[in-house]
């Protein structure tokens, strides 16, 4: 393994440790010391990779975004009809719902970052850009295969639906199966059964 690959792997290990610490302690309660202990590295090594806590947090957020994007890409590759807009939208939305432990961890950490974004413009800008890209993608797919409608508005509804059900599942207000059923029903209404 090259030095560059080793560094990338170590940074990824630290990001994953940060996610676990965030679940246990909240984002505000997460420190470089806690993450170093969880990752099994020294604080000095942490500081070699990240000068500040915020630098570590932004990297962890970016790593999580890449992980979700990679998983969505894998779902796209598994589609029987990769050109079907409904199936593409479904794959993208379902991969962001907390339907298993991995996605539940991501959703919890994502909510923590959303809270941080309310008071920190760096996180707000990052999340706003991601939302804008997701919205544009949904608009494109709805225009390709949805029933006649205001595609921009429908994309907002889909994102709000997923965000709301994500919070509901995390808070125990509904089950993952109920969230999935609601998304499926909305997609059927938008694209047809």
Automatic annotation (TrEMBL):
Indicate the segments forming the HTH tetR-type domain, all copies.
Answer: 8-68
Q: Which Pfam families does the entry mention?
A: TetR_C_6, TetR_N
User: Source organism's superkingdom?
Assistant: Bacteria
- Name used for this protein in its record: TetR/AcrR family transcriptional regulator
Q: GO molecular function: any one? A: transcription cis-regulatory region binding
* DNA-binding region residue numbers: 31-50
Q: Which UniProt keywords apply?
A: DNA-binding, Repressor, Transcription, Transcription regulation
